[in-house]
Every structure is written in structure tokens, then in C-alpha cells.
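Human: If only I could read C-alpha cells as easily as an amino acid sequence. Take your time, and here it is.
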Amino acid sequence: MNRVVITGMGAVTPIGNSVDAFWESLKAGKNGVTEITRFDASETGVTLAAELKDFDATVYMPKKETKRTDLFSQYGIAAAVQAMENSGLDTEKIDVDRFGVIVSSGIGGMNTIQEQVIKMHDRGPQRVAPFFVPMVIGNMAAGNIAIRVGAKGLCTSIVTACASGTNSIGEAFRSIKHGYSDVILAGGTEATICEIGIAGFGALTALSKSTDPERGSIPFDKERNGFVMGEGAGVLVLEELQHALDRGAKIYGEVVGYGSTCDAGHMTSPSVDGSGAGKAMIQAMKEAGIEPKDVDYINAHGTSTPANDSAETTAIKYAMGEEAHNVPISSTKSMIGHLLGAAGAVEGIACVKALENDFLPPTIGFKEADEACDLDYIPNVGRKVESAKYALSNSLGFGGHNAVVCFKKWEEA
């Protein structure tokens, strides 16, 4: 079996449009939640979101192309271009037939769907944009990225709602581990801060109704009342170890385990006993060859919804046993909101940086403890540790999808 390492990363997030800016903001506990500026949200009953700030798609593509791509594709391309530059990959010197892309989106081109349905309603079906379909279908972030970088190997996207990004990393890991690919760009991208996105999740009573940005996304806090919509993208370059060594690549971390299960229970609520997510965590640890006592950090799904955070706490106890009370846990969604299909990708990058720097990012906005959430959530201030070797990244999606990736600090081969 091949070892799989991380040789590049790229991110556009509500607290920074590069990996370095994102990481510095995470360390500082910066809050990316603000009042919605993209549109007048007053009638939705939801006023907060975690929007990208100062994102310029023309840095990554010609202006003409931005007219033919939805925001979710633009974000994905931006993160992928950053990751490629960070990796130093030269497609002239690798086998592009073994170079793949697995970049997913939970929803796809929601902004374009909204815009074009309104146009059709107001002006008739003949006025629908010629590029409507390739702008909205969920695979087009991966497709556009592959076109941009010349990747001719495996190219796909995985739709498992909020687990999409983590499933993408996990499946890319397996493809390289078992010898089908040499290099894969893996991650997720999402852009759903629009009227129908906010109204839809609001109607589901999934979003926070708070008007205070400091009390919007507050995972594991007793006063949590829903998640805050975020947006952005994260892409990691996963590469077979020898392939990376042969080209002298800088290695940032290693992927060593992956678990994926389904609750097979409820459309939107996680299993109360924690067994679904818990078994995914157990699978990831088993593949990594570690035990609960070896886990130094868990980046929780931690959405700030009443149902998720207590159920995920139970799932962590299911998987970790007595060690659950010893492992530091945080939800970076407290700072960036919930990026849906991109969440696991950006959170995976947070795990890699945490292991690389021996620094665990905080769960900000934590004020009132909940008896149903009684673990160590690294409240409010990040934590420097002597050594962090293994981290789990949890993602749980509507439909009962659970995905967990185990990352390992890079150590010389």
C-alpha cells in the first residue's frame, strides 16, 4: 500500500483568502461572521452569514470566464490554483493520466439557479443563459479545475451534503493508497449565501436567528440556536509519497485513515446514540493504526445547532471511550460559519496546520456550558501544545452521511 502525503494547500475563506491568512486568523480567534451584505435579508428572518471578503476571481481567471462560471466554481478554481502553486507541481514532468481531481460541492450553482429562474419567470424561457447548465451542475468545479490544471486522470465530485469535502479527501486518499493515482487535488467548494439559500435553510429552522455576530455561530454553547451560513473553498494536493520525494516536494502532512458510514435514520438529524459518526471515527483510527489515546486533536463538525453538537459529543464518546474527556476538540465553524460541502476541506487544512504548528485552534464565542456537551472544546483561546501528531476531522451531512479523515504530522520517510 502507498503512503499518501499532502504537498500543497489552497483556501478562500471568510477569514482569509489564502491558507496563511486563514491559519493566522484561526490562531487569533478571528470571527468571520457579519451581517449579510450580499442582499437584503430582512424578510428571511436571518441576518448573519460568514461571507468572503475582498475576493477577486479575476486574480485566478480571465474576466470573460467569470461570466461563465458560478461562484462555487470560481472559489474552487481559486483554491486549486493556490494549491498547485503551493505544491510546485509541474504538469510537464508528471503523468497527467494519473493526476486527478475530486473537488465537491454539496449544492452546486445555487446563485445561478436563483438568478436564471427569476429571469425565466420575468422574461420567458428564451432568455435563460446559454451556459446555465454547465454553470450550475455540481461536478463543474472539479471539471473546470481539471481543465485549468490539465489533470486527465480520475475526475469526479461527491455529493454527501456537509460531508462532501471530507469524503473527497478520503476517496482521493484511497485512490492513491491503492495505486490508481499519483496525485489528486481534493477538497470542496460552496457558494450559497443568496436569497434562496438563506431562505431554504431558514425554513428548515437550521440557521441561527441571532442578530449579534458574536453570538451567531457558537458551537457547543448552551445558547446555540442554529448554524451560520459560510462560503468558500479548500483544496489539498494529495500525492503518493515516493512521487513527492522524487520531485523534492515540501510535505505538509500525511493522510493515514478514513472512515465513512451512514446513520440510515433521519433526513436531517444525526443518530442520537452517536453510533453512525462514532463508527466512522473508529474506522479512521483503525486504518491509521492508532487508538483513541493517540489522537491529539479533533476538529469537530460542530455546527452550532442544538441537535448536532450534543449528538456529536455522544459520537466522540462512542468512538473514544474514556479518552473522550482527554482529547482537545474545537469547531472552527465558530469563526467561519458552515461551508456546507466545502466545510470538511477547509477544516482538513486547519488540521494539517494544527499538527504542523503544534497549535490547536479555539472554539470562539463559548460562554455557557451545556450539560449535554461536556468535553474539552478549547474555549475561546487557541492552545499551544508540546506535540500534536494525529488529528481527526469530522463531517456529518444531511441524509445521515458521516465522514472522518485522520491526519498525521509529517515525519521524515
